[in-house]
Amino acid sequence: MPLDSYYLGFDLSTQQLKCLAIDQNLKIVHSETVEFEKDLPHYHTKKGVYVHGDTIECPVAMWLEALDLVLSRYQKAEFPLEKVMAISGSCQQHGSVYWSSQAESLLEQLNGKSERDLLHYVSPAAFARQTAPNWQDHSTAKQCQEFEQCLGGPEKMAQLTGSRAHFRFTGPQILKIAQLEPEVYEKTKTISLVSNFLTSILVGHLVELEEADACGMNLYDIRGRKFSDELLHLIDSSSKDKTIRQKLMGAPMKATIAGTICKYFIEKYGFNVNCKVSPMTGDNLATICSLPLRKNDVLVSLGTSTTVLLVTDKYHPSPNYHLFIHPTLPEHYMGMICYCNGSLAREKIRDRLNEERDDNTKKSNDWTLFNQAVLDDSKDDDNELGVYFPLGEIVPSVKAINKRVMYNPNTGRIEREVEKFRDERHDAKNIVESQALSCRVRISPLLSDSNTRSQQKLNEDTIVKFDYDESPLRDYLNKRPEKAFFVGGASKNDAIVKKFAQIIGATKGNFRLETPNSCALGGCYKAMWSLLYESNKTTAPFDKFLNDNFPWNVMESISDVDNESWDHYNSKIVPLSELEKTLI
Ligand code: XUL
C-alpha cells in the first residue's frame, strides 16, 4: 500500500451518520458527523426516527442525503479522499429497506452520473416503502409469537437463529409488512438490512446481506449457514418461499470485499478508482472489531444498561442472549448479553446512601460513600446477597424487583429473605457483586476451559440453574475469560470497575478505555484488514492483525489478575442461582 493510505469507517446509527478516517498506523486522522435532527431538519424526525405508538421508523432518503453531506464535509476539509484505499462501517442492526423493481436500474446510474445528488438518482422510485422499520420498533408481538410457534418455542428459536424472537428482529418485521401492507410487500423486489443498503449505495448496485448482521433477523440458521426454509415459508407461503428468498437476494455474502466504489463517488468526491468497499456490518458487530478481542475475551459496557460482548467458538445459544456469526473471524461467534439494570440501579443506592449524610454531598451525585462500601473487604457480608432490578430485567427475565437474602455459606442455600441488610452500605457492595456475578455466570458456557480450579471447598456436584442452563457448579469453576475490556460511563469509576474485574476474573488482564468512536473505528479496522488480507499483504487473521497493530497505549491496564478474589466469589454462585430461582 502507498505509505499515506487511509481507511474510512461509517457509523450509520439512529441519530447520526459519522465517518471516521484512520491512517495506515491505525491512528484516527479525521472525523465528520451529520446529525439527522439538527442537520437534516426537513425530515422532521425526533432523535432520528418517527414514532407512531409502537411503530418506530426512519426515512430512508435521509440516509442518502446524510451520505452526500458527510462526504461533502470531508471534501470541504480538503481531506485527500483519493488516498482512501478501503471503506467499511457499522449500521444500526435489524432495520430493513424495501427496494422496488426499479432499484437496480436507478443504482446503475451511479456508475455513470454524478452531477446531481444521491437523492435525485435513487429516491423515491428505488424504494417500495419510503421508511425503514427501526430497531426501537416494538409493534411485532403477534409476529414474534408466530415465529416462535413455528419452531416450537423460544428455546428452539434461539437454537436455530441465535436469539429468541424479538420485536426488533427483521424476520418478524418483514412478516408484519407482508401481513399489514400486502401491496408494499408485493411491490418490493429486494429487502436489505441497513448494512447492505449502505454497501449497495457505495458500490452502485444491490449487494447481498452481510452474514453476521443477517443473524439479527430471526431467519438465519446459524449452524447450517443458510436461511431457514420453515421461517421463510412462514413469511411467504405463496410460492414455496421462493419469493422471499429472492427478495433477500439468496444467500448472504461471506466475502471480505463487496466491490469497488462506484463512479459517482469517484467523480463527485475524488475517491480513488481502486477504493474497495468491505461489507458494512451491524453496530455491535463493528464494536467487537474496534478492539483487539480474541477468542474468550470479553467487552463489558457499563452504561445505563450493561452490555456484554464476547468472542467465542462455542455455539451455546440461549433465549436470554444473542449469538451472531463473527463478522471477521471464521468459525467464531459474538455473544451479546443485554441487561436493563445498570447505572440507574446503582445510582438509586448511591443516592440513598448520600441522603443519610447531612453534609453537602447530599444531592451531589457523589460516589465516595458508595465506592468505600464497594471496596470494603471486611467480608462481614459474606452470607448476604441481593438483586436490585428497579426496571424489569432481561437476564434473568423477571419483573421489577429488589430482593435481599441471607444464605448459609456452607451449603449456599438461602435461609431467609430480609427487608434490609444490617448496614445499608452493604447494598452498594451487593449490587455491584450480583451484577458482575450475573455477567460471569452467563458468559461461562461460552468460554473454553481454563486451567484454574477453585481452591475453596465447594460441593462441585451441586446443580446450579441460570435461565435455561442447568449444570453442576463444577462447570462454572474452570471457565475464565482471557482479557476483559471495560468501556462506558461507569468504567471510569475505579471501585465499580475493580469489583467487576475481580469477579469476572480475566486471566490475561483487565483494560479500560474510552470508546467514543467504537462503531466507526471497527469499520475502519475491518476495511483495512479486509483489503490487506484480500491483496495478500497480510496472512494474519483479523484478531491477530489487530492485536499486533493495535495502539495499546490508548488503553489503561487496570487491576492485576486477582485469583484470590475470583476464587472467593465462586462461593456466591450457588446462592445467586438459588436466589434467582425464587424470582420466577
Ligand atoms: C442490537 C440492537 C441495537 C441497535 C442499535 O440488537 O438492537 O444495538 O443495533 O443501533
UniProtKB/TrEMBL annotation:
Keywords from the UniProt entry: ATP-binding, Carbohydrate metabolism, Kinase, Nucleotide-binding, Transferase, Xylose metabolism
Domain Carbohydrate kinase FGGY N-terminal: 134-287
Protein name as annotated: Xylulose kinase
Reactions performed catalytically: D-xylulose + ATP = D-xylulose 5-phosphate + ADP + H(+)
Enzyme class: transferase
Superkingdom of origin: Eukaryota
Family matches, as CDD domains: ASKHA_NBD_FGGY_SpXK-like
GO molecular function: ATP binding; D-xylulokinase activity
Family: Belongs to the FGGY kinase family.
Keyword Transit peptide annotated: no
Function: Highly specific D-xylulose kinase which participates in the catabolism of xylose. Xylose is a major component of hemicelluloses such as xylan. Most fungi utilize D-xylose via three enzymatic reactions, xylose reductase (XR), xylitol dehydrogenase (XDH), and xylulokinase, to form xylulose 5-phosphate, which enters pentose phosphate pathway.
